[in-house]
Structure formats: structure tokens, C-alpha cells
Amino acid sequence: MKLYNMNLSNFATKSRIVIYEKGANVEIVAPPGAGLKSSEYLAINPLGKIPCLDADGLIIPESETINEYLEEKYPHPRLMPANPEDRARVRHFTRFHDLYLEPPLRALFGQLNPKSRDDKVVTEKLTELQGRLDQLEATLAAGGYAAGADFTLADCALAPTVFFVVNLLPGFGAKPPLEGRPRLAAWWKKVQERPSVKKALAEMAEALKAMLGG
Ligand SMILES: N[C@@H](CCC(=O)N[C@@H](CS)C(=O)NCC(=O)O)C(=O)O
């Protein structure tokens, strides 16, 4: 099995965390060709996005589909709870992440350079993102991992994006994202201690440093 990956990608990092957590035998490789829209990579994943799993010939795009597949393929340690209610709770976070939390952050990636940024876009997207962080604060479990006492796919989804939130928002002059959000702050401290998360976020941090110029 092969994961097409870029260490800076928060979506690819979602899947790397699952691979590290499970010690799964998945080779982590860069996409072939010159970029995600190269003919070489589009021939593998027509969506031209990262991550993408080659499960011995079955091509699986989309980080959450990959993560659920890995969960079923490598059930130990389990990253989905046993009962339907708790599973629904985990899926709430993974969908909340993909559909609502991540998009306003992604819209800010193009605004990182203060010289060329559009202040209207920055204000609009920061406001949206702060609202999503308030919703996250209101739904996180108290004192444990995102969905409860156990580490799950919910934590795998949230951690890479919260890494960007914590590291990039100060550059926009935004309110510090952990301030006034005690559950988010406690979860963030706890989740970073997990070895799989620590490893994947260190890879992201190195890639971010390289992108920002050392
Ligand atoms: N919904 C997708 C999103 C993947 C995604 O947008 N990945 C980014 C890198 S973090 C990407 O490939 N961007 C290139 C593009 O959209 O053209 C997933 O969950 O895998």
C-alpha cells in the first residue's frame, strides 16, 4: 500500500496520523510528476488532490475515506468506538472538520503575504473561522480527547488543522485561538502528547518552516 503525501498538507497529515497510530505497512511517497495536476499524478488520482491511497491497486482519494478504510483494514488499535452513538459523535467531528472548520482556514492560505493580502477577505474568513472555533469549543468533550476518553479518528482529523490555526492566526493579528477556549486549549495540549500526532505534526512543522523560508 502507498499513501501519496505531502508533509505540509493537513489532509494528508490526517491520514499519516492514522498510519502511525496503527503502525500500518503503508509506504509514504511524494506524488509523481511536477505537482498535483501533472499528467502522471492525474492518471493515478483524477481529483489531483492529496492525500490518495493506493491500496494495492484500489485507488482511494479523500482523507476521511482513506482513514475509515485503514480503520477497517487495520482494526487495532481501534480509532472508532464500538457503539453507534459514539461512532456518530466521532463522525460529527470528522465532517465538521472537513465541511466547516477547514474551508475558512484554507481561504486564508492565499492571504499569508501581508504585502498582497486582501483585508476584506482576511476579515471575512477570520470571522468565519473564529465562529467555527467557538462551535468546536462548544462540542469538544471535557478533559479527554475530542469525542470522549479515547483517541479516535476525530482527533486525527482535527489536530493538523488546529496546528495551522495555532501557528498561522497570529500572523493575521487575530485573537489567539486558544484564548477563552479552555476545552480546545486542554485538548490541544493533550493531543500533541500522542506519539503519532507528535511525529506527524513535527513533519508538518518542518515543511511549514521550509515554506515560510527557513
Ligand atoms: N476533501 C479532500 C481535500 C484534500 C485537499 O484539498 N488537499 C489539498 C492539500 S492539503 C490539495 O490537494 N490541494 C490541491 C488542489 O485542491 O488542487 C480530502 O479530505 O482529502
Kindly summarize this structure in a few lines.
By secondary structure, the protein is an alpha+beta fold. The chain has helices at 10-22, 39-44, 63-73, 84-109, 119-139, 153-168, 182-191, 195-211; strands spanning 2-4, 27-29, 52-55, 58-61.
Could you describe the 3D structure shown?
This protein has 214 residues and is an alpha+beta fold. It folds into two domains: 2-73, Glutaredoxin; 84-211, Glutathione S-transferase Yfyf (Class Pi), Chain A, domain 2 (Up-down Bundle), CATH 1.20.1050. The chain is built from eight helices and four strands, in the order βαβαββαααααα. It has helices spanning 10-22, 39-44, 63-73, 84-109, 119-139, 153-168, 182-191, 195-211, and strands at 2-4, 27-29, 52-55, 58-61. The radius of gyration is 17 Å and the shape is globular. The mean pLDDT is 97. Glutathione (GSH) binds at residues 9-11, 36, 48-51, 62-64, 98.
Given as residue ranges, the uncertain stretches (5+ residues, pLDDT < 50) are none
The count of DSSP E runs of length 2 or more, i.e. the number of strands, is 4
Major sheet details:
4 strands, mixed
Mean pLDDT: 97
**Heteromolecules bound:** glutathione
Strand content: 5-15%
**Distance between the amino and carboxyl termini:** 32 Å
Topology-level CATH name of the largest domain: Glutathione S-transferase Yfyf (Class Pi), Chain A, domain 2
Tell me the radius of gyration.
17 Å
Largest sheet strand order: 2-1-3-4
Structure keywords:
214 residues; alpha+beta; Glutaredoxin; Glutathione S-transferase Yfyf (Class Pi), Chain A, domain 2; four-stranded mixed β-sheet; 8 helices; binds glutathione
